Amino acid sequence: MNYKKQVAQSIVDALDNQLDEQVVYEKIEVPKATNLGDYAFPTFVLAKTLHKAPQMIAKDLVEQINKSGYEKVEAQGPYVNFFLDKGTFSNEVLQTVLTQNSHYGDATIGNNGKVPIDMSSPNIAKPISMGHLRSTVIGNSLANLLSKTGYQPVKINHLGDWGTQFGKLIEAYKLWGSEEEVKADPINKLLEYYVRFHKEDQKHPELDDEARKWFKKLEDGDKEATELWQWFRSVSLKSFKRIYDKLGITFDSYKGEAFYNDKMDEVVQLLEDKNLLKESQGAEIVDLDKYNLNPALIKKTDGATLYITRDLAAAIYRKRTYDFVQSLYVVGAEQINHFKQLKAVLKEMGFDWSDNIHHIPFGLITLNGKKLSTRSGRVVLLDKVLDDAIDLAKQQIQSKNPDLKDADKVAHEVGVGAVIFHDLKNERMNSFDFDLSEVVRFEGETGPYVQYTRARAESILRKSDHKVKITDLNLADPNAWETLKFLQAFPETILRAVKEYEPSVIAKYALHLAKSFNQYYANSKVLVEDDDLNARLALVQSVSVVLEIALSLLGVQAPSEM
C-alpha cells in the first residue's frame, strides 16, 4: 500500500479536485518528529488559489477530509498532519513482508534488460590492494540491486592485462627474478620486481628503453615475451580468485584489455569512414569541441593506440554481445573526463546507445590520510586486511559467545562483511580513511552491528518456540511504530538506490532499521504470553527478513547466531 498516495487522494477529494493529485503527492512531506504525524501537507501552495492565509486553509481542510483510515488528522499552523491508523498499517506491512519473504522489495522495472558492469579490474602481476575494494564491492552491490529490480546484470572484470607495464615487468624479471621465487610466492614477488624497477630506473633511465623493447616484442607475438606474459596472467588470476572467493564475489567475464587487441583496427576504420579522425602534431584525434571536451587522442605519433581506443572497442563489443539497456563503469572519480570523452566519441560515431553508458565514479580510500600507491610500494593488501578483520571478529565473538557453533565460519562472515559494509555505508563519491579497529566493532554504525541485530531477532524467535501466524497482525504499540514505518519503506528505498546507483542508501537504511528495532526491543517486552504475542513476533521476524535482504544486496552475509 502506498500510504503517501492515500494521503494525496484524501486531500484532492477534500479540495473537490482543485489540485492535481501528482502536484499534491510531490508536496507531501514526512515530518522529522513523530508527534507531528506520519505525513504532512503544507497549505502554502493553496494560498493564491483560495485567497486565504495558509493557517486558515489548514483548519478548513481538516474539516473537509474524510478521516476514515487515519488515527487522526489535525492542523498545526499551515500544515495538515496525518496520523496513520497503526493497527491497519501494521497488519498490512507485516503480512506483506512475511508473505513475500525474501522477495519483499522485488520489482520488475528492468524488464530483463541486460546491464554489463565494468568493475574491479585489477592489473595483472600486481596484488589486489585496498585500492581495488571500492570498485569491486560497489559493482557487486549494484549488480545485486539491479537483479532485485528485474535487470540482468553482467559482471565484467576488465583485467589490466596489457600495456607498457608488462615490458617493465619482463625486464625486471629478466634482471632480478627467478622462476622458483615466483612459483613460491607469485604476486608478492612480481610486485617486488615491479617496485624495484621504478626505483632503479630513476638512476638508470636506459631501463625504460629495454622495457619498451620487451613490450614491442610482446605486441609482435615474440615467443618468450608471450610465455612470460601468459604465466604472469595465470598466476595472478589464481591469486585474484582466492580473494574474490573470500569476498563472496563472482564474475561473468574476465575479458580484459588484451581481449580487445584485435578489435581496435575496426574502431580506427569506423572513425576514418566517418571522417572523424584529424591529425594534430603527428597524432590522430577526434575533435570534441562541441562537447566542451579536450580532443580524444586515438593514435599516438608512433601509431600506438590508447586506452580510449580500447574502451571504444569494448563498448561496441558489449553492445553487440549483450544489447544492453545500460552499461555501467564502476571506475574512480579521476576518470570522469575519460568517460565523457568515450561517450562523446561514440555519439559522434552515430551510436545513440552511448546515452545508456553511465560512469559510476567513487572517492578514494586513504590510509592515515595518504593515497595508496603500488608504484611507490605504499600498498595495503586486501587479502591481509580481510584476514585481520576475520581475526578481530573472532576475538570479539570469543569474548561475547565462547560456545558459538561454527565460530570460524561466523567470524569470516562478520570480518569480511564488516569491511564490505564499511565501504558501502559511505556515499560512493566521498573519500574516507580506513581504520580496521573502527570497522569491525559490534557497536556503532558498522556491519557487525546490523548482523548482530539480525542475529538477536533470530534468537528471540528461537527462544519463543512459536510459529508466527500471518493473520491478525494489528500491533498498536507506539514503541513499534518507527520500526514498522522503516519496514514499509524498504521497497521504495531499493528503487532509490537503483535510480541513484548508490548502495549507501541500503547500508544507511539497514543501520536505521537495526537501531529502531533495538530501541523497540529495549522498551517493549516481546515474549509476554498475551493477545499481541503473535503480532510482536511477526514484527521480529519481519525485521530479520528485511535485514537479511538488505545485507545480501550489499554482498554481506547474515549469520543467525553471533
TrEMBL record:
It is found in: Cytoplasm. Belongs to the class-I aminoacyl-tRNA synthetase family. This is Arginine--tRNA ligase. The gene is argS. GO terms for molecular function: ligase activity. It comes from the Bacteria. The keyword Secreted does not apply. A motif ('HIGH' region) lies at residues 122-132. Monomer. Keywords: Aminoacyl-tRNA synthetase, ATP-binding, Cytoplasm, Ligase, Nucleotide-binding, Protein biosynthesis.
